[in-house]
Specification:
By secondary structure, the protein is α/β, with parallel strands linked by helices. The protein is 30% helix and 24% strand. The protein has five helices and seven strands, in the order E-H-E-H-E-E-H-E-E-E-H-H. Strands 1, 2, 3, 4, 5, 6 and 7 form a seven-stranded mixed beta sheet that branches. The longest helix is centred in the last third of the chain and has 20 residues. It is elongated. The two termini are 15 Å apart. The model has no long low-confidence stretch (mean pLDDT 95). The structure holds inosinic acid. Inosinic acid (IMP) binds next to strand 3. Inosinic acid binds next to strand 3.
Length: 204
């Protein structure tokens, strides 16, 4: 059987590992942009995670006719901060500001709020442009709250301050495999896998 070619719009090795695990390599040949020899600079100027994800996948699809092109866009929404930092998660307080500083700033902005008012979620939109040029986008989330102090050594970004409701530990304090099994990105990737299978079936 000819494997279907997927190009995933990321240079991040961890994301590549996760997508290979979730989609499976029996059916798909999964390449990073670099492995596919594609370089595209896109301005992620959408107002939503979905828009930004589609901006990326559509730009890359123009250079990769016949492939499935996947892209993701993710971030943290804090309800008490009007869903900030949202699509600006990577750029919040400046791209070069360390996450120690960003995380402390978010904790400070929630001063005095009880647990229920500290609700937050990680969001991940994954889009796919199909070989026929049509596209689809899905959203995965994981709900939690912002803790009172950073915790844990795993993960990256906002993980140390993002706590799980039922465990009262941060997503930086649980093993990466456990996080992947419940994460916004894992959920979105599992959803897009279904959408791709349905699209494939409707074409046959
Ligand atoms: P990207 O769209 O995957 O590049 O993510 C944008 C930003 O959202 C990252 O730079 C992080 O600040 C934040 N983010 C997204 N997913 C996570 C996560 O799983 N843990 C911590 N931070 C995340």
């Amino acid at each position: 059987m000819n494997k279907k070619k997927i190009i995933f719009a990321t240079g991040n090795a961890n994301k590549m590992r996760e997508i290979r695990e979730i989609l499976g390599e029996d059916e798909y040949e999964i390449l990073s942009m670099k492995e596919a020899g594609i370089q595209v600079d896109v301005e992620e100027n959408g107002a939503t995670f979905e828009e930004n994800s589609l901006i990326k996948s559509r730009a890359i699809a123009l250079k990769a006719p016949g492939a499935y092109v996947l892209a993701d866009d993710s971030g943290l929404e804090v309800d008490a901060l009007d869903k900030e930092p949202g699509v600006y998660s990577a750029r919040y307080m400046g791209e070069d500001t360390s996450y120690d500083i960003k995380n402390k700033a978010i904790i400070d902005r929630l001063e005095g709020l009880e647990k229920e008012k500290r609700s937050a979620r990680f969001v991940c939109a994954v889009s796919c442009v199909f070989p026929d040029g049509s596209d689809a986008v899905v959203r995965g989330t994981i709900e939690g709250y912002i803790g009172w102090e950073p915790m844990g050594e795993h993960g990256f970004g906002y993980d140390p301050i993002f706590y799980l409701w039922d465990k009262d530990v941060s997503t930086a304090a649980i093993p990466p495999e456990e996080k992947n099994s419940i994460s916004h990105r894992g959920n979105a990737l599992r959803m897009i896998k279904k959408v791709m299978e349905e699209h494939e079936n409707s074409c046959n």
